[in-house]
Amino acid sequence: MDRARIYVDLNEMVTDDIVLLSKDDTKADSMGSIITFYEGLPVSLYSDDASNSGETDNLIFEGIAIKYDLKGYPEWRHVKWCVRIDWNSLMHESDMTFLQLLPIEIEKHPNDLLTLHKFLIYFKNHGMEKDSMLKNLEKTKNQCDSKAKDVLIDLMNFVVGWCS
In what helix (H) or strand (E) does residue 42 lie, and over which residues does it extend? Predict the structure, then answer.
């Protein structure tokens, strides 16, 4: 995992962007640290998922801890904390690994069309839509030096045309 994250079960969605987080004021993250919740706390999250081949490929995403009135949900009345999910941050753990390596590869070989080709095939094979592809390229661009940023801007422009 790229950092310590708190587990949530996406089968416990309360609304389209709110999921149950904890019945207590604290919960252990993936590294064993105890996190104490408060209203508005930014939290890094993960949920179980698998790749098409059945290998573990957790979903990772960000959210904000909130108290949510669950009186209308008798089976969840014991829950103290929920989290409002930022769906724009959602990706598979394998995507994050690739995104961490992409700026390094582009900085080492900024004119290497094979690297860019691998990037496009990777995202196409993972069923990533144009907006998600561009969002991830933007994140990657912000981690690169100026030479690599120019390459990524060109790649973003290519993706816009390619997916239109």
Answer: strand 42-47
For 20-41, how does the pLDDT look when each residue is reduced to its tens digit (9 = 90+)? 999 999 999 999 999 999 999 9
| Burial readout 124-138 (b: 16 or more C-beta within 10 A, e: otherwise) | eebebeeebbbebbe
Sign of the Cα torsion 144, 90, 23, 71 reads positive
Q: What are residue 20's DSSP bridge partners?
A: 82
For the beta carbon of residue 58, count every other beta carbon within 10 angstroms: 20
Cβ-in-10-Å burial (0-12, 13-18, 19+) of 6 comes to buried
How many alpha carbons fall within 13 Å on the CB side of residue 136? 24
In angstroms, the CA 81 to CA 65 distance is 7
Whether the pLDDT of residue 117 is over 80: the answer is no
